[in-house]
Amino acid sequence: MKKKEKDQTPEEEIVNQQEENAPETEESAPIDELTEMKEKYLRLYSDFENFRKRTAKEKIEMIQTASERLIIDLLPVIDDYERAIANAPEGEISEGTQLIFAKIGAILQSKGLKELPAKGEVFDAELHDCITQFPAPSEEEKGKVVEVVEKGYTLNEKVIRFAKVVVGN
């Protein structure tokens, strides 16, 4: 501590006391540096946590949709088979062939494939693709799907093919 000088004004005396009681800048520098490093660590940690969560979410999505291309490629085959069953005379398609098709359908459903409901539903541009419009036979069918030209499908709640429909106008 400095000795009190006799010719100091009260203001100078207060300033000298504050200087004596104030922490040294050399001591405050490590504290500031520590605080800064702690903030950097917290930011880095939160960035890493966000990265970890994002990659985990991406992995889950990738696993769920890994078979998407294969299933999309199989949809025309399913459509052809359904048309064959609908147009074949009774007894022409064997029961064994029908069982095989049912098994394929069950496998695809277990992988998350679902048919979009369309006929009689209100037209929804997020689910349906309107290829044409016809006059509605009745008032309650206006704005609703009158006919389905091609079925739509979802895979794990994601639309992989929109239903091609005719809408009543």
Topology pattern, helix = H, strand = E: HHHHEEEEEE
Helix fraction by DSSP (H/I, runs of at least 4): 40-55%
The protein's oligomeric status is: single chain
Identify the CATH homologous superfamily of the largest domain: Head domain of nucleotide exchange factor GrpE
Numbering strands along the chain, what is their spatial order in the largest sheet? 1-4-5
Topology:
Blueprint: H1 10-21, H2 25-64, H3 68-87, H4 95-110, E1 113-115, E2 128-134, E3 145-150, E4 153-155, E5 158-161, E6 163-168
Parallel strand pairs: 2-6
Antiparallel strand pairs: 1-4, 3-6, 4-5
Compact summary:
With 169 residues, the chain is an alpha+beta fold.
Can you give keywords for this protein?
alpha+beta; 52% helix; Nucleotide Exchange Factor Grpe, Chain A, domain 2; 169 residues; 3-stranded mixed β-sheet
Describe the structure.
The protein folds into two domains: 41 residues; 101 residues, Roll (Nucleotide Exchange Factor Grpe, Chain A, domain 2). It has four helices and six strands. The strands form two sheets. A three-stranded antiparallel sheet has the order 1-4-5. Strands 2-6-3 form a three-stranded mixed sheet, with no helix packed on it. A hairpin with a 2-residue loop joins strand 4 and strand 5. The chain is elongated.
